[in-house]
Write a structure and sequence with these properties.
Elements lengths: L5 E2 L4 E3 L5 H14 L2 E5 L5 H15 L3 H5 L9 E3 L18 E5 L29 H26 L17 E9 L13 E4 L5 E6 L5 E4 L10 E2 L7 E5 L1 H6 L8 E4 L6 E9 L5 E2 L17 E2 H12 L10
Parallel strand pairs: 1-10, 2-3
Antiparallel strand pairs: 3-11, 4-5, 5-6, 6-13, 7-12, 8-11, 8-13, 9-10, 9-12, 14-15
Helix pairs in contact: 1-4, 2-4
């Protein structure tokens, strides 16, 4: 596997720009080119983002026995220890050298969908240990979803769909939205030895909204079939989110848009990041969009239900819960 030798120059989309056609054109080029881009003027203040990162750090600084009390459950909520996730088994010696915490959407108990796998309920640290922590994360979850809805309008327009196409009830009207706090402890990665902060993978869903600190590490490979693979660094951009497309959007767009391989290499520095994964509802059937196929370009993927696809991907990449002994 080739070392990363250059910095990727991503397109930057201003979500507040009044020049919608220009923004849509830039976004479409980014989605075709790499499936990665920055978004600026997104509406979430830097002060609040700093607060979210500070609260994330407080959680990961807790003793391991405290974090293990919140070990992720069968609904994929809670704490994931270092090495829990194995994203690239063909190249990794062990799991990812990162720890994380999953937070999803919670529905009222009287909602018939409340007990479905990806609608919660969440696990939360004791408020005596981390006061205000839950409220901060819930607020960020809500604000991040608003940003994703803005981006979804641009994506719809770039695919010659109505701007509100993805707001339909079965898509983002009742989405699966998963906030994940991540902490890379400072392990130095070595691809030749199979040691990674996060192994090479593509995300599973619609799009991912990524907030990062100022520590580098994220890399993308635009051509997963190249040999050797060529990796480019995606550098943090102050005040911006990194956005990347997921597998479901690649399926929806019939491969017009890219769900690109990416990984994280640790340099010896601690690193924090906060990806926000957004997918359609459990029962949404992901199949080729009407504007993305023709007689000459027939659908490349069979239809699949979102829940089915997501459960399989989680099963393939996470350790069995039976391997852990909870305190």
């Amino acid at each position: 596997m080739a070392d990363c030798k250059k910095v990727s120059k991503l397109y930057s989309i201003d979500l507040s720009s009044p020049h919608i056609p220009t923004s849509v054109s830039l976004l479409k080029q980014a989605c075709v080119d790499s499936g990665f881009f920055y978004v600026t003027n997104h509406g979430i203040s830097e002060e609040f983002l700093d607060e979210v990162f500070a609260e994330s750090k407080k959680f990961f600084e807790l003793p391991l026995e405290e974090k293990m009390k919140l070990l992720r459950n069968e609904k994929h909520r809670g704490y994931t220890p270092v090495l829990d996730e194995l994203l690239d088994p063909a190249n990794q010696l062990h799991g990812d050298h990162k720890e994380g915490f999953y937070i999803g959407i919670e529905l009222p108990e009287d909602n018939p969908d409340a007990q479905r796998t990806f609608y919660g309920p969440n696990l939360w640290p004791d408020s005596d240990i981390l006061p205000g922590w839950r409220q901060t994360m819930e607020k960020y979850h809500q604000q991040a979803l608003k940003v994703v809805r803005k981006i979804a309008r641009f994506i719809a327009l770039s695919l010659d769909l109505d701007a509100n196409y993805f707001e339909r009830p079965e898509i983002l009207g009742n989405p699966i939205a998963i906030l994940r706090l991540l902490h890379y402890e400072g392990q130095v990665s070595d691809p030749l030895k199979g040691i990674y902060g996060a192994g090479a993978h593509s995300d599973y869903g619609f799009i991912t909204l990524l907030a990062t600190d100022n520590v580098s590490g994220l890399q993308i490979c635009k051509d997963k079939d190249s040999n050797p693979q060529v990796w480019e660094s995606v550098e943090p951009l102050k005040g911006a989110f990194v956005v990347n497309l997921g597998d479901m959007l690649e399926r929806w767009s019939n491969c017009i848009f890219r769900s690109t391989l990416h990984r994280v290499l640790g340099s010896g520095q601690e690193r924090y990041s906060i990806p926000y994964f957004v997918l359609p509802s459990h029962d949404c059937v992901v199949e080729c969009l009407p504007t993305c196929h023709s007689k000459e370009n027939t659908p490349k993927f069979p239809p699949i239900k979102c829940e089915t696809y997501l459960l399989q991907r989680y099963h393939d990449t996470h350790a069995e819960l039976s391997t852990y002994k909870k305190p």
